[in-house]
Specification:
Layout: E1 2-4, H1 11-29, E2 32-37, E3 44-50, H2 56-73, E4 77-80
Antiparallel strand pairs: 1-3, 1-4, 2-3
Length: 89
Amino acid sequence: MELSLESAFSLKDKRQIVKSIIERLKARYNASIAEVDLNDTWKNAVIGVSCISNDAKHIDSMLNNIVNFVENDGRAVLFNYNTEKIYID
C-alpha cells in the first residue's frame, strides 16, 4: 500500500504515524505488516501486508478490511495498492 502522509513534517512524525497504523493493523487483523519502502521519505510510505490461509474468500475479506481500515484512518491517504495471490498445491 502506498501512503501519503500530509500531516508528517519530519521523519519522526512519519515514523510515529506509520508505526501506529501498523501496530493497529497487526492487533486487529493478525497479519504480517511492515514498512517496506521509502523509509527515509517523510511524506510517503509503502506498507507491505502478508496473509496466509487455505480459504481464498477469507484472504480477500481480510485484505479488503485492511485497505478500508487504512482509507478510513484519516492520518494517511492511501493512493495506490496492489494485491498478489500465490496458490500452492
